[in-house]
Design goal:
Blueprint lengths: L4 E4 L2 E4 L5 E7 L3 E10 L2 E11 L5 E10 L2 E9 L5 E10 L6 E9 L3 E8 L4 E9 L8 H18 L11 H17 L7 H8 L24
Parallel strand pairs: 1-3
Antiparallel strand pairs: 1-2, 3-4, 4-5, 5-6, 6-7, 7-8, 8-9, 9-10, 10-11
């Protein structure tokens, strides 16, 4: 990662002529990394990694514009054994606005997932699905989401609706954390106060292996016209 604008606890440490800003924060309750990127004053992505004091889980929040008016976003809790819980969504905005008109919302727990399709413009719930699943982890979430998005796009294709492009993988988004940490380490000689941040942000993760295979069942419950 090239040098970006870096703000630590509200103070600019590094100022570059680009539209990417990295906010770092550390206090007695949490440490966090928050990245925001724009292009010509147009929002492109937001990623935040948060670690609470005395909590071995990590919290990931993200939002990516995939194209034009389609946004991929989520809020996930990732345990020290890489288990994932939380929500992920694909949202379609009204062109040239931030108003959501259509959205797919996936809720993941330790044993089930729940899928909702809501046409926000008319406040209609069109599809809903629920299925018992094996534990979702960093090693199998890509297959899980791939199957769900395929089902969504198959439905869109049948109805001649815009297809949702495949988003960056959760593991690729997680890779942003390492790139930022590497950048911070590279400038600690100039900004020694960042050593304190790095010390607070230390995080160890247990590795697990799984033979889980994704099995997605799509339920068509009802459609309002």
């Amino acid at each position: 990662m090239k040098e970006e604008n870096i703000i630590y606890n509200g103070q600019y440490l590094l100022i570059e002529e680009n539209n990417t800003k990295i906010f770092l924060h550390a206090d007695s309750s949490l440490t966090l990394i928050h990245l925001v990127e724009a292009s010509e004053n147009f929002f492109k992505r937001r990623v935040e990694f948060k670690k609470k004091i005395n909590d071995t889980s990590k919290y990931l929040t993200f939002s990516y514009y995939l194209k034009d008016n389609i946004v991929f976003s989520g809020y996930l809790t990732i345990s020290d054994t890489s288990e994932i819980a939380g929500t992920i969504s694909y949202q379609i905005m009204r062109p040239n606005t931030t108003r959501i008109i259509d959205g797919y919302y996936i809720t993941i727990t330790s044993s089930t997932y729940y899928l909702e399709h809501i046409v926000t413009l008319n406040k209609q719930e069109c599809y809903t699905g629920k299925e018992d699943i094996s534990v979702i982890t960093l090693s199998n979430i890509e297959a899980f989401l791939f199957n769900i998005l395929n089902q969504i796009n198959n439905n869109h294709s049948i109805r001649n609706k815009t297809l949702i492009p495949y988003p960056p993988s959760i593991n690729k988004i997680m890779g942003e954390e390492k790139s930022i940490i590497d950048l911070i380490k590279s400038i600690t000689d100039t900004y020694p106060e960042l050593n304190t941040f790095l010390k607070e942000y230390q995080f160890s993760r247990k590795r697990i292996r799984t033979n889980w295979h994704s099995k997605i069942i799509w339920y068509y419950i009802y459609e309002r016209r």
